[in-house]
Specification:
alpha/beta, 3-stranded parallel β-sheet
Length: 79
């Protein structure tokens, strides 16, 4: 997803983006403009970044779900 796609998204939408260094500019644009965002993450480091970037939802794999849940409950209160 690129910034132009985000601009064309209806205001009530939640934008899903896979966390990647390649799309950090898009994630920053979404975050800066207060657009609801769901970030897909692959590991704990990306989970922490997703939380700090203000993701409304953080999507994890089934294998990561238990660890992510524990971290979110204990450290990432708004994730």
């Amino acid at each position: 997803m690129d910034i132009q796609s985000v601009i064309k998204t209806p205001p009530s939408s939640i934008v899903f983006v896979e966390f990647s260094e390649d799309n950090l500019d898009t994630v920053e644009h979404i975050s800066t403009n207060g657009i609801a965002m769901a970030l897909g993450v692959n590991d704990i480091v990306e989970l922490v970044y997703a939380s700090s970037l203000g993701a409304s939802f953080i999507v994890v794999s089934k294998e990561l779900a238990s660890s992510a849940h524990e971290i979110a409950n204990n450290y990432l209160f708004d994730a």
